[in-house]
């Protein structure tokens, strides 16, 4: 794997320094875009399959038209872009903690998702997804009582491996119940994870939602010569 890279942007945050970098990878013979938080890799343009499936699977079980959707975590933009491919999506609010990440997209620094920020259906909201999701005010405090058809989340690595300790409260029955108050009946909560299903989190989901499942998403890994996987949690509000 090539270690030569160009840093396209960075910003200091309470969770650490977040950065966007571009490098040419000889293994795959293409440019690769990566987001890092400190020394942790958050995402790579090499492996967007599960981020895309998060949107597709979540919206596949979301009924209705004129959908009002929340995406938690902007990252490289693959989940938001995949959600916009569903023609039923009328409004997409992407909740992102870092103003730097929002700026990268407004500058179209990531070729695969260029134009995302300019889509008239999209609102990029700089706020803490977890604080908003567990609050009564919700994601649009100026619109009390607004409920969403789907909430698609891709921020932490897993329910146990979080980027910031305060996030842990979200992955409890109380945290999930607070989030569910912002969903319409029949609405879907879907979440990406780096690991397969965790029993404790599945049980917590089952106490709050119905029709709970976890789907493992497999994709080719050029570095191992085999396959790797992430997973997507899916749950419906009764």
Dominant shape: globular
Instruction: Return Rg in Å.
Output: 17 Å
Q: From the helix content, strand content and strand pairing, which structural class follows?
A: alpha/beta
- Largest β-sheet summary: 7 strands, mixed
Q: How many β-strand stretches?
A: 11
Residue stretches low in confidence (pLDDT < 50, at least 5 long) are none
H/E topology pattern: EEEEHEHEHEHEHEHEE
Regarding quaternary structure, how should these chains be classified?
single chain
From the N-terminal CA to the C-terminal CA, the straight-line distance is: 47 Å
pLDDT averaged residue by residue = 95
Percent in helix: 10-25%
Helices, by number, come to 6
Bin the strand percentage. Answer: 35-45%
What does this entry show, briefly?
Helix content is 21%, strand content 38%.
What do these coordinates show?
There is one protein chain. The protein has helices at 49-60, 78-84, 99-106, 129-133, 173-180, 199-208; strands spanning 6-13, 16-25, 30-37, 40-44, 67-72, 89-96, 122-126, 148-153, 183-193, 210-221, 226-236. Helix 1 runs parallel beside helix 2 (78-84) and helix 5 packs across helix 6 (199-208). Strands 7-6-5-8-9-11-10 form a seven-stranded mixed beta sheet. It has a four-stranded antiparallel beta sheet with strand order 1-2-3-4, with helices on one face. Helices cover 21% and strands 38% of the residues. The longest helix is centred in the first third of the chain and has 12 residues, at 49-60. It is an alpha/beta fold and 238 residues long. The protein contains six helices and eleven strands. It starts with 5 loop residues before the first strand and ends with a strand.
């Amino acid at each position: 794997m090539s270690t030569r890279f160009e840093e396209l942007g960075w910003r200091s945050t309470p969770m650490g320094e977040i950065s966007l970098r571009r490098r040419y990878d000889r293994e795959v013979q293409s440019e690769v875009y990566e987001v890092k938080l400190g020394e942790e890799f958050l995402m790579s343009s090499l492996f967007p399959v599960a981020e895309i499936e998060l949107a597709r699977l979540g919206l596949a079980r979301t009924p209705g038209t004129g959908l009002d959707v929340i995406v938690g975590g902007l990252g490289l933009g693959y989940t938001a872009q995949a959600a916009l491919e569903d023609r039923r999506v009328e409004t997409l609010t992407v909740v992102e903690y870092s103003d730097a990440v929002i700026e990268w997209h407004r500058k179209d620094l990531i070729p695969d998702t260029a134009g995302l920020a300019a889509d008239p259906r999209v609102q990029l909201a700089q706020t803490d997804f977890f604080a908003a999701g567990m609050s009564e005010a919700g994601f649009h405090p100026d619109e009390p009582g607004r409920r969403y058809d789907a909430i698609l989340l891709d921020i932490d690595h897993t329910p146990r491996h979080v980027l910031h300790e305060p996030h842990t409260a979200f992955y409890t029955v109380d945290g999930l119940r607070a989030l569910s108050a912002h969903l319409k009946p029949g609405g879907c909560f879907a979440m990406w994870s780096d690991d397969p299903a965790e029993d404790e989190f599945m049980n917590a989901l089952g106490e709050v939602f119905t029709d709970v499942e976890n789907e493992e998403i497999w994709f080719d890994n050029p570095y191992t010569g085999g396959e790797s996987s992430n997973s997507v949690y899916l749950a419906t509000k009764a």
